[in-house]
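Exercise: predict the structure of this protein bound to iron/sulfur cluster.
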Amino acid sequence: MIRVQAVAPGTLGAELGLVPATELLAIDGRPLEDFLDWEFLTADEQFVLRARLPGGEEVEYDIERPEGLPMGVTLEPPRIRRCANHCDFCFVDGNPEGARAALWIRDDDYRLSFRYGNFATLTNLKPWDIERIVEYHLSPLYVSVHATDPVVRRWILRNPEAPEVVPQLRDLAGRGIDFHAQVVLVPEVNDGVQLERTLADLWSLGAPILSVSVVPVALTEFSKRHLVRELTREECRAGLATVDRYATRAVAERGVPWCYGADELYLRAGEALPGAEWYGDFEQRENGVGAVRYLQGRIALARGRYPDLAGKRIAVVTGTAMGGLMEHVLQPLTAETGAHFEILALENSLYGSSVTTAGLLPGRAIQDALRGRRDLDLALLPAESVNDDLLFMDDLAAQALAAALPMPVRLSYDFADALVEEGVPA
Ligand code: SF4
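Solution:
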């Protein structure tokens, strides 16, 4: 059963009289479990919907839906599938005490993998889920493979029950499902020969494995550091060398690099990032693969439309990972606008200095850095560091932060969105 959260006016849902708290029970007699059922089963032009109105009355609607007419129904958020694993590097274990409830959820949900590109391990799939993936053609899925050797993978996931991933992928691939895979690289566990084996196994699955990213394990001050450590610079270099070997082969045989090192792997290795063209459609950008080149591309896209900001002092807040690269990224903006950009690469006061990404910066660290800065005309804050409710990781609201600072602030993904008035095309 799923429940209506909101109905947009002027849509079919509103015309039918669906209201918030209506329970959507079945389509053509088939019970509705979640948003996937709702979306796929209501895609037909004709169907019968059984629903229970908030007053308890059950109603059957015989619906004819002209093509393109939206149902206009927003559902209550789905119950997230919980994770069956206990990885040593799990971000949940790296949370500080008192972090908000949502940060303690270990989600491992193939539905969100399809919808939002969240990585899932596929270790909690029931036979029914597999049939659904195939029936609804949930493709591509984003899968945390980590290692294809079943023993090593079970060790990484701390899940002795984890099914073998290669047969799982092969079976689904044979039924039309494609994948983006990731390997979180853990020193002395799935690097070296294990990484070789993993990439070889994934390569042998052929075209359905669309891409593989290799991401260095990330830990916070609170992670289980007695069980897992970060990669050294040399280990990052060795990992990149393996990635490069497979990418070179893939370019020769398939015309695309296929296997990508995350930006963080290059930064930690002290090696230069590949050019933007390497990343194609930036399919694993959300996983930190090509994010820097993508950002540079976004800045360039708005060239000629930036305002004259000569004489303005603008702070750019970021995490320490991007601190060293940001000057280079901002050069074209400085040249075009005449502004003086001051890079504030902040340490993460919530998770510890090992967490270097801008997306996890707490609001209070930003507040502390900017509170006394009356010399600034504007501060640009990383938009990815707030959630949909505009709260930072430490629950500080963006609005409260703005009110506490002496300069105007803007949340920005790519500078162009904050500096060019009419915006830039997505
Ligand atoms: S798969 Fe591992 S890292 Fe991901 S939520 Fe589960 S325990 Fe955490």
